[in-house]
Structures are given as C-alpha cells and as structure tokens.
Amino acid sequence: MSFILWMAVLGAVLLTLALTSSFLRWMPVTTSAVCLALGVAISPSGMGLLNLDIKDAANWMEHLTEVAVLFSLFVCGLKLRLPFKDRKWRIAFGLAGPVMVLTILGVCLLLHYGFDLAWGPSMLIGAILAPTDPVLASLVQVNDAKDYDPVRFGLSGEAGLNDGVAFPFVILGLLFLQQPGDSSAWLNGWALKSLLWAVPAGLLTGYWMGHGIGRVTLSMRIRNADSTFSPNDYLTLALIALAYVAAESIHGYGFLSVFAAGLGLRQAEVKSTGDTQTPAEHLVQPLVNHQNVEPEAAVHGDVENLEDTQVAAGIMMGDMLAFGSLVERAMEVFLVTLLGVVLVAHWDWRALVMALVLFCVIRPLSVWLIPWGRLLDGRQRSLIGWFGIRGIGSFYYLFYALNHDLPPAVATLCTDLTLSMVALSILIHGISTQPMLARYERLNNQKS
C-alpha cells in the first residue's frame, strides 16, 4: 500500500470530521462511530482503497496502540486533581479493582460455559476485554481538572488504573495457554511478580517522577522568568517516555507509571499554587495568547494579580493538556478507522451475544455488587454500570498477545471477538452517550 494512498485516506478522514463536526455535536453520534463507518467504506468490502493484514501488522500495531494509550493515560492523570484522601477515589479504586476482576470472571465463565471454549482462551479474552478505555471514553470522563462529578471522576480513574491492572490477568491467560497442566509451579511466581510487585512499582515510580519533575520544572521557570516560552510539549513527551522506561526497567507496569506521572505532576501544581479550588490553567485563561505578554509581567504577577507559581503552573498544565489531547484525538481517528478497514473480515456473530451479556448484565451487576455506601446513588451506579466502554486498550492487549506465540486458532478467535466487541461498544455506547449524559446533567442542575 503506497504512502501517498495512506496520506490521502488520512487527509480525507480528517477533512470529513472537520466539516461534519458542527452537525455531529447535535446528533447522538460520536467521532469514533464516524471513523468506524469510514473505515468500513474504504475497506476491501467497500471501495477497496485500503487493506490491512492483522497478522503482518501485529508488531507495529502493538507499539502504535501502546503509544495511543500512554498519551491518553497521561492526560487522564493530569485531569484528576482531587487529593487521594478524597472519598471519590474509592469509586475509581473499586471500579479498577473488584469490578474489573468480576468482569474478567464473568466473561471467562460466559465463554467457557456459553461457547464451550477452553479455560485458557476464555481467561485471555476476558482479560483483553476487561479494561475500560481511556481514549474512546473521553466523553464520559472528567471535562477538566475542576470537574469533580463522582460519575465522571470514577470512570476517569477507572480508565487510568485498569489499563495497567488488567496486565497481570492478560499474562495469566497467556500462562494458562502456554503452560498447561499443574499451575502451582508458576502461579505463585505470577502473583508475586506480575501482581504484588509490578502494580505498586509502576504506580510509585510514575507518581514520584511526575511530582519531582513538576516541582523542579516550576522552580526553574520561576527562577529564570521563563514561564511563557518553555517547550511544554517536550516536557510531555519526556515525562511519558521516562516514566514508562523507569517502570519497565524495574519490571513495573509502564501504563500505570505514565498515568501516575500525570497524577504526580498535577499534585505538584496543587502544591505550587496553594491548593486553590480553581486549577492553575483556568486561572491563566485570560493569558491564552501568552506569547503576546511580556514574560516579566506574566511571571511577576502583574496580569490578573496572579502569583508567579500560578502563572508558571497554569501555562505548563494548559499546554501539556492541549498537546496530549491533540495526540490522543489523532491516534483515535487513525486506529478506529483501521478497525473499520478490518472489521468485516474479522466479524464474529458471537460478539452480539457477548456484547448483550457484558454490557447489560456482567458490567452493571459487577458495579451493583460493590458496597458503595453514600458515594453513589442508584442513578449514578446505573450510569457507571452502562459506560464500560471498550476500545484502544483492548487493542493493545490483543496485539500484545498475538506477538507472544498464540496458537493459530486461539489467535484468530481472540482477534475476531476483540475487534467485533470494540466495534459494537463504539456503536452502542456512542449512540447512548450524549442523550444519557444530557439527562444526567439536567437532573443534576434541577437538584442544585
């Protein structure tokens, strides 16, 4: 496939989205749904413009999806500003922990008893489909760092945490496939290395890197009166890369590390700006065109009566959020379009039954089984139970598994079910997102 053709298709997709955005905002259709439809239209089953062989592309697709998830996790971490002592964090921990484990168990049992699959493939597919997606679920997550709604905050924290927490269960599924027989020989090693060590190691490594680098960066910029011209996109790329590498080098989970790096950087902003209710990037909103402001005036707080640290932190956080979100959206468009290109060739009818059970039974029931107390009312539990959106995170785990010597039949099964389930999630959740959230916001406004 020629580079010129790839560029033409990508340009056409982006132009279509740009021209139709004003119509889509008033319709219950997401950008992802449009990209999926465009992908199907240019696939071999449509106009035949693009063709993609999953087996041949598995290696580079693993890394591409990994990069997409890393950017999304970092941005997700930057948006979560509440201190860890706040009770809303219990929602995120409950969703990323017990709810995800119950989801894996539910999908595994469905595949084993409902479709007569062996335990190994059932466990692996359950783990691949368990994490909710930080990329495609952006509409139901926090809007920005001042959004403390329990539903959106919980879903955001869940998406940030469970993309890493699902990793040990993907490894467990691979071990069941590759080392059949007596599991006692490797199960203890899996629990120690993949669960008890890798999860906290990833979280702590990323958090302290993000927090430490954030404090040092702000201090240097204030000292050198350089709040407005420093390359914050470089800082974003550097922190994502270093947090990932640092965690992986000590056998921690890089996904969790990058998410925690965003959290740590946000907490550095909170400490530097005095824990005000308004995030620093909103305080400097009048300085959006800060290139036109004299650096000395901005840094010394002569504009909008802001302190030095507030200006420095606000510009840094605003630029990093904008850059990370731009990369996240671009990767979403590209990957979902590719999903449309391969969807017809890999469609599996069993995904219809799986989607019905997972979306309408397993996920909602798992949420309702957790004793939330007063953290969530019934309406909020129902919303969280429905918005278990699957997406790019599942793509990454699929390609990770395909690159670890799966038997051909299992590889085909995992590929077909995963791609079909993500496509169904994009369509079903995409259609329901805007009307359900609009009703939720309307009821919240009536209460207040």
Automatic annotation (TrEMBL):
Record bears the keyword Repressor: no
Cellular component GO terms held in the UniProt record: plasma membrane
GO molecular function ontology, one term from the record: antiporter activity
Membrane-spanning segments: 61-80, 92-115, 159-178, 190-210, 234-256, 326-345, 351-371, 383-402, 408-432
Keywords for the protein's UniProt record, in alphabetical order: Antiport, Cell membrane, Ion transport, Membrane, Transmembrane, Transmembrane helix, Transport
Keyword Ion transport: yes
Example GO biological process: proton transmembrane transport
Membrane association type: Multi-pass membrane protein
Cation/H+ exchanger transmembrane domain location: 15-272, 336-438
Cellular location(s): Cell membrane
Alphabetized PANTHER family for the sequence: CNH1P, NA(+)/H(+) ANTIPORTER 1
Name this protein carries in UniProt: Sodium:proton antiporter
Naturally occurring in which organism (per UniProt): Pseudomonas frederiksbergensis
